[in-house]
Amino acid sequence: xxxxxxxxxxxxxxxxxxxxxxxxxxxxxxxxxxxxxxxxxxxxxxxxxxxxxxxxxxxxxxxxxxxxxxxxxxxxxxxxxxxxxxxxxxxxxxxxxxxxxxxxxx
Length: 106
Hints:
By secondary structure, this protein is α+β, with helices and mostly antiparallel strands. The chain has one domain: 2-Layer Sandwich (Alpha-Beta Plaits), CATH 3.30.70. It has 3 helices and 3 strands. It has helices spanning 32-47, 63-74, 76-79; strands at residues 5-11, 16-21, 92-94. The chain has a 3-stranded antiparallel beta sheet, covered by helices on one side.
């Protein structure tokens, strides 16, 4: 395997949220902080997007924890008063974490 699998990508006006599955223990794979730094560098160089220096991450322990964080992130625009329901937010894409199929926005 050895590749990242994107589960959720949600863009807010001043930040973004990702749920991404990163392979653990792959020999030669860079650590997550290095990967994020490289990604930010590429976005700055190609699109002029400015980022804060750090990032926050957490390991999702099981399916219930994944579902909880998925719902929390999808409802972030609602909590910020940017839309009435999570379904109204257009700046999101989600994928089935097992199959990789795009999910209909809920």
